[in-house]
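$ run holo --ligand "S-adenosylmethionine" --emit tokens
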Amino acid sequence: MTEGYDVIADVYDKLNADIDYKAWADFAEKAFDRFLEKRPEIVLDLACGTGSMTVELAKRGYDMIGVDGSEQMLSVASERAYVNFGEDDEYRLPILYLLQDMRSFELYGTVGAVLCCLDSVNYLTGEGDLDKCFAAVHNYLDPDGIFLFDVNTPHKFKNIYGDNAYILEDEIEGSAVYCGWQNSFDEKTGICDFYLTLFSEGEDGKYIREEEHQRERMYSMEEIRKALEKNGFECLGAFSDYSFSEAEEKDERWYIAARAIK
Ligand SMILES: C[S@@+](CC[C@H](N)C(=O)[O-])C[C@H]1O[C@@H](n2cnc3c(N)ncnc32)[C@H](O)[C@@H]1O
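-- output --
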């Protein structure tokens, strides 16, 4: 069984087709207007995955850096950076992709904003990982730069993931993909293991079976706020949705904004 995102990279976008990255990007831009004095020039998409958000913001005129720890996810992201204008006119968006760990990444300089979307922060599962990541983000943010991220909430881990199982199905370029998804959640440690079994239809109609294990960790609002403060951030707010409604316990996802104090 593969660990992380390597097996799922090719089908990740299809399985996440319902995610509205444009709405997340609109939220990010509204947060820039609300919390920054001027629009950031360089933005880091941390744990950028297949680059959906990175590309969306690059199209909106930001100089983008994407960091991710999975070579396969970055390979999909890299393909996506090419935009076609007409049949023969191909243009590569100005995106720098770096294969690095979000707990210890290094950039060439500081950036005006860091985003970390789609519960990537929950992938920090080891003791002290949240601190390491927040410290690295702080290190590479301009003074007063903004850090925006979302997390799966304790409510989601306890009541929605739990020990539940699902089947997701989709079709990719005419070939069927089925994903069996089994969760195992330990409320004491806050660790949730996801066991994924993918069946992808090959050109000859035969199915290939692959397995992947992923792990997330539940963080309470208090843990997040403490880690932000400890690593030099002022928490600007925790929100339920893209319209800045105040976060509530029953939410499945929280959107958090923090400012780097330097
Ligand atoms: C749920 S995906 C989100 C991807 C992307 N942000 C999006 O919105 O589609 C989580 C991503 O976190 C990355 N990841 C997990 N742990 C990581 C680590 N320690 N360092 C860097 N990337 C990591 C995975 O490779 C994966 O691409």
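-- notes --
The CA atoms of residues 20 and 53 lie 10 Å apart.
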